[in-house]
Fold this protein.
Amino acid sequence: MAYVNEHYLKLAAGYLFPEIARRVTAFAADRPELAKEIIRCGIGDVTEPLPASAIRAMCGAYEELANRATFKGYGPGTGYESVRAAIAEGDFRARGLAIADDEIFLSDGSKGDCGNILEILGSGNRIAVTDPVYPAYVDANVMFGNTGAAIVGGGYEGMTYLPCTAENGFLAEVPSADAPAPDIIYLCSPNNPTGTVMDRARAEAWIAYAHKHRALIFWDAAYEAYNRDPNAPKSIYEIEGAHDCAIEFRSFSKSGGFTGVRCGYTVLPKRVMAYTRAGTAVALHPLWTRRWNTRSNGVSYTVQRGAEALYTAEGKREVRALVDFYMENARILREGCERLGLKTWGGEHAPYVWCATPAGHDSWGFFEHLLRNARVVTTPGAGFGRCGEGYFRISAFNSRANVEEVVRRLARV
Ligand code: PLP
C-alpha cells in the first residue's frame, strides 16, 4: 500500500493566486463583453521583454549546443563556476561583502528554494513568518510537516506569526523575551506583499535574536533590485554576524524579468550552522551542496548564460532601466491611490503598493468591487494572512498604459 503525505491534506483552500484566477474567470464568464477590459495587477508577474544582453547570451549558448566542439551536457548541480563567480563578485564582493563563489547555489527560482531548503533541516523546527506573508513559505512548511492543522479564520497551528500592522510600519519585530523562540524565521525585504523595506537597526535586532537563540534567518531578497533606501540593507550579509546564521534567497525574476526563464540562487555561507538533537553544530553548506548534487542536475546551461549576462556592464544598465520602469509604475500607482485618499505603504523601494481598503470594504469585498466596477484585478490583503485584512496590494508589473488606465479607473469607482 502506498501512503500519501498527509501534511498536504492540511493545506487550507486554494493557493491565493489560483483563487484570484478562479474569481476573474467567473467574472469574465458572467460578463464576457467586459472580459477584454480586465487589467491584471494581482499576481506579481513582469510584463516587459528581457534585457537584450540576456537574450544574446542565451542565443549564443544555443549556438554552442549546436556544435560538437562547444556542446554542453550535464553541468555542475550547483551552477557553472563562471556564473557563481559573476554573482558572488557582482552582488556581494563588489559591495564589500565577503561571499565566496562556492557559497552561491544556482536554482530555477527562489520560490522553490524557500521550501527546498527545509530538506536539510530537521523536522520539528518552529517556523516564524510575518503576517501578512508571501504564501509560498507557509504552504511549503505545511507540506514538510512543520505545522499542525489549519485554523478556522486563517493560519496554521504550530506556526509563529509575526504581526505586521500599520502600527509597526508593516515591519516584523523580534518576539518578546517570554514568547517561545522560533528556530527559523522567514524575513522578506523589500517585502511582498507590503512593499516595505526593513531598516538596518531592525535587521541587526533580528541577527542578534538569531544568535541568542541559535536560530536561522531566511532572508528573501527577491526584490533587492528595487531597494534604493540607503538605510535598508540590500543583503542580510551587510549586517555583522549574519554570515553565521542567515541564508539569503535571490531571484532574477524581478530584476532581469526572468519569471518565465526561471533562475535564482541561494547564498549559504560556510559558517552557517544548525544543530543535532544532541546539540552538535553542523555546517549546512556541505548538506546543501549534497542536496543539489543528489536531487538535481542543475539549471539549464542557456539560462545560466542569460543570468550571467546580467552582470556585464551592459546587462547591469539594462536591469537598472527595467527596474526604473517598474518603479515609475509604482510611483504612478502610489501617488494615484494617495490622491484618491487611500492610505498607502510601499511602492518606493518595491514594486508593490499596499493600500488600506476604503471604509466599509473588507479585502475580498473590495477585490470584487474593483473587479466588477473597474475591471482591475488586485490582490486582497486577507489572502496573505489575517493581518492583511483591510488592505489590498497593487502590483506595478504592467505596461505604462495599463498603469495609467488603472489610476483613471480607480478614480471612477
Ligand atoms: N519570494 C518572493 C517574496 C516573491 O514574491 C517571489 C515571486 O513572486 C518569489 C520569491 C519567487 O520568485 P521566483 O520567480 O524566483 O521563483
Summary: Residues 225 and 309 are 16 Å apart (CA to CA).
